[in-house]
Amino acid sequence: MSAVESMTALRHLDVCTPRVTDHGVRAISGLNGLEVLWLSHCGITDVSVDLLSQLKALGELAIGRTRITAAGKARLQEMMPRCRLVEEA
């Protein structure tokens, strides 16, 4: 993920692998132009909620089959009301 963090022109990123953790989300949390982010099947937890909420351009976020709790998902949706959360992917 550290290689991706410098790709500031990215608009869509799909990294659905258990090897991506909260540390990986921290690496991409500065990609302010991301509009679509798929993190299904990743090893992310509620720790990533605050990091993901910084991505203000997101219109779609896939977080199905992660370790983010129902409370974390609800908090994320509250913090990002314009973003569509994709649970099944």
Question: What's the helix and strand layout?
Answer:
Elements (H helix, E strand, L loop, with lengths): L11 E3 L7 H7 L7 E3 L8 H6 L7 E3 L7 H10 L4 E3 L3
Parallel strand pairs: 1-2, 2-3, 3-4
Structure description:
This protein is of the alpha/beta class and 89 residues long. The protein has one domain (23-86). Helices cover 26% and strands 13% of the residues. The chain contains 3 helices and 4 strands; from the N terminus they run βαβαβαβ. The protein has helices at 22-28, 47-52, 70-79, and strands at 12-14, 36-38, 60-62, 84-86. The protein has a 4-stranded parallel sheet, with no helix packed on it. Strand 2, helix 2 and strand 3 (60-62) form a beta-alpha-beta unit. 26% of the residues are buried. The mean pLDDT is 95.
What's a concise summary of this model?
With about 90 residues, the chain is of the alpha/beta class.
Which characteristics define this entry?
single chain, 89 residues, alpha/beta, 4-stranded parallel β-sheet, 3 helices, 26% helix
Q: How much of the polypeptide forms β-strand, as a percent range?
A: 5-15%
Show unreliable segments: none
Major beta-sheet overview: 4 strands, parallel
Terminal-residue CA separation: 20 Å
What is the count of β-strands?
4
**How much helicity do the residues have?**
25-40%
Radius of gyration: 11 Å
In order across it, which strands form the biggest sheet?
1-2-3-4
Average pLDDT, rounded to a whole number, is 95
Query: Helix tally?
Result: 3
Helix/strand/pairing class, anyone? alpha/beta
Write down the domain tally: 1
Shape: globular
